[in-house]
Amino acid sequence: MDGGQFHRHPLLTLAVMARPEGGRRVGLSVGKKVGGATVRNQVKRRLRECYRVRLDRITAEVDLIFFARPGAAEASRQDLEQAMDQLLRRAKLWR
Length: 95
Known about the structure:
Blueprint: E1 5-8, E2 12-18, E3 25-30, H1 37-54, E4 62-68, H2 77-90
Parallel strand pairs: 3-4
Antiparallel strand pairs: 1-2, 2-4
Helix pairs in contact: 1-2
């Protein structure tokens, strides 16, 4: 991601890149360090839901990639929501 910004939190890392053609895309990456396939899928589902309820508050036209860090497997949904909120505020994407 050339020209992108990275914002880190103990549970998640957020990569942001401007999208000149407009629109907004999101990607989720949960690597094997987080856990086995079942755990990774659970983390992805929780992250997808966290993003879905925040979708209308993100105004920028950007590509977002959330990378789950190993601690995300043991984190509650509330912890993941707080981490996502902090990262979106740091990236100045929060309305």
